[in-house]
Amino acid sequence: VAALPASAHLARAEEVRDWLAAHSGDYLERLRALVRVRSVSADPAAGPGMRAAAELVAAELRDAGLPDCEVAETGGHPVVLAARRDAGQARPTILVYLHYDVQPEGELADWSVPPFEAVLRDGRLIGRGSADDKGPILMLCAALRGLAECGGDLPVNLIVLVDGEEENGSRSLPAFLDSRGDLDADLVAISDTSMLGIDRPSLVLATRGTAGLEVELRTLDHDVHSGKYGGAVANAAVVLAEVVAALHDENGRVAVPGFYDRVRPVDEATLAALAASDPPEQDWLREVGARGESGEQGLRVHQRVWTRPTLDVVGTWSGHTGPGMKTAIPAVATAKISCRLVADQDPDEIAGLVAAQLRRLAAGRAEISVRPSHGSRPVACAPDSPAAEAAVAAYEWGYGTRPVLIREGGSIPIAATLAERIAPVLFLGFGLHGQQEHAPDEWLSVRNFELAANALVMFLLSAADLPRARTAST
Ligand code: BES
Ligand code: MN
Ligand code: MN
Fold this sequence. Notes:
Structural class: alpha/beta
Radius of gyration: 24 Å
Oligomer: single chain
Strand content: 15-25%
Bound molecules: ligand BES, manganese (II) ion
């Protein structure tokens, strides 16, 4: 049971709430300006947009009361790093992690509005990155500015780290963290996850890891006439389909020897808490027009997504994909495979196990080359830490409803590294289920923007009372 927010904080939080009610419209406009900057980290042509977005974020953080803020080079896209350590040694330091990069917009024709025009419609801000993860950056700025306007001092020390490569695997960040000795904190708060709904605020207790592989399978030296050779030689597209199909058994389990060996069973208390959050699973499937189900039989949808590892094909290509027909047997077929991992699976080990199984399945029929791509470790946090309890109380105060405990099927590539090198992780996200992140017409709820800022205010105030976990630093 979470403690109620200390009454000492209530009066100030209420004052900030009034300030936010009057000023969140201004912050929404600032968010629109950030959404208009196309910061697609995966696009090699997006360099100027990346830098412009980083500079804009830095300007907002300075304006919000963090003058000590830099746009720092990483070798990849820059990170924005701000710090404020004037609460004193007795107070904890919170490192807040966010990202300013966004997913590619995809096909313009699939959007109902241009993806980088930050259109406001029906209480929604529509645009790539509005929810993931630019909205939370401005929510934090609004909360900090509100606190500065009402009562002055921030009761915690704060580091804000805004990544420019999260959507592309945060490749440059580990080396950047190594190069900075000044990122000591007691708690890492990652503001990049979703809740079940605005009336169902949620505390996320885990994110999954990832293991990706790129597969190329070859059955011939070159494509051949399908009339002359069809039926006599192995077809790369067909062999690949058979190989891929053999990666799951008839019960929906991943049929890769060793795949589940390190899966740590979820404890009963967490399972009960997740079941109690009661996500409406038929709606989840209906909302996306699912024509069928997949995954492990006997588990509810949210159990499969939140507590179990998966293996999926996320891209595949073979033969003639242009217009019209070309009657040739393809010599080569490729597939991109992406696994989601749970504690204590290791991305390199899983990639190795999947690669070995692919080789076994293709043996005697095709040559196969397998290359690991992205990899990140899963993170799970305890529901009963003082930080989690402070977060529960903050969501409850901000949203007027006690949050449910959930997990997240998605991944934050740097989360495990932050947990290992800096401090325990807490997920302090404010996305809403259904906001179409990574999809056309991504949107952010204008009302949620203000409620989230309120919850953040209460969290920052009550974080001042958290124990200092850090070993004494000089
Ligand atoms: N914010 C998401 C993580 C997330 C996913 C939160 C789904 C809530 C729901 C993050 O930006 C993300 O998209 N991560 C990628 C990581 C990948 C590019 C390595 C993901 O999960 O696919
Ligand atoms: Mn994100
Ligand atoms: Mn994302």
